[in-house]
């Protein structure tokens, strides 16, 4: 079992069932019941994925997500109530890569976890791409703007690479969900929109007036030569 998952969930029964489901899928799970313990464990060990409940005692999942994202670009999947739209958007804005709604479905949890882990692995057939002063190297999982390395999450990196290697072309949200998130269905377009927003903050000189990553209204997004 190579993939290590940090599961942060305060409900004992849900924590146990999620652990069993992931372990049956050949993932190694370390479970914590609160934010401070999770942050401490994350700092001490290596993890490939974090599954994070938002409603935690003492320290809210938002704060945990913010702290983990400050430390690392590791993929983060948040657990949220089905009706908590505001929580979903806030979690994505903080840098979460995906989400799972409660009540938790074991098959969906495994599918989302595997999808996140797949997109974190480089494809040996991918080649470095450069457009203007932005360079993306998929094999080293590094991207640069003007020679300075960009601090990107796994999803942000995959999104940038997909857009840059299709420079000048319009990519729909549906296409990006398939290529970046590995979804074979429509999924949640807010995943794309929130990731685009975060990416603009890192590659645009003025994110409010983007000139590289532009919106094609009613269709999707296009990366422009600059």
Task: Explain what you see.
With 226 residues, this protein is an alpha/beta fold. It has two domains: 4-119, Rossmann fold, CATH 3.40.50; 129-223, Winged helix-like DNA-binding domain superfamily/Winged helix DNA-binding domain (Arc Repressor Mutant, subunit A), CATH 1.10.10. It is 41% helix and 22% strand. It contains eight helices and twelve strands. The strands form three sheets. A five-stranded parallel sheet has the order 2-1-3-4-5, with helices on both faces. The radius of gyration is 17 Å and the shape is globular. The termini are far apart. The model has no long low-confidence stretch (mean pLDDT 90).
Q: Please report which band the strand proportion falls in: under 5%, 5-15%, 15-25%, 25-35%, 35-45% or over 45%.
A: 15-25%
What would the CATH topology of the largest domain be?
Answer: Rossmann fold
Which shape, going by the Cα principal axes?
A: globular
Oligomerization = single chain
User: How many DSSP helices?
Assistant: 8
The tally of beta strands, per DSSP, is 12
Count of the separate structural domains: 2
Terminal CA distance = 44 Å
- Give the neighbour order of strands across the main sheet: 2-1-3-4-5
Largest sheet: 5 strands, parallel
Order of helices and strands: EHEHEHEHEHEEEEHEHHEE
The average pLDDT value, as a whole number, equals 90
Quick one: CATH class of the largest domain?
Alpha Beta
CATH H level of the largest domain: which superfamily?
Response regulator
Bin the helical content.
40-55%
Structural class: alpha/beta
CATH architecture of the largest domain: 3-Layer(aba) Sandwich
Low-confidence stretches: none
Structural Rg = 17 Å
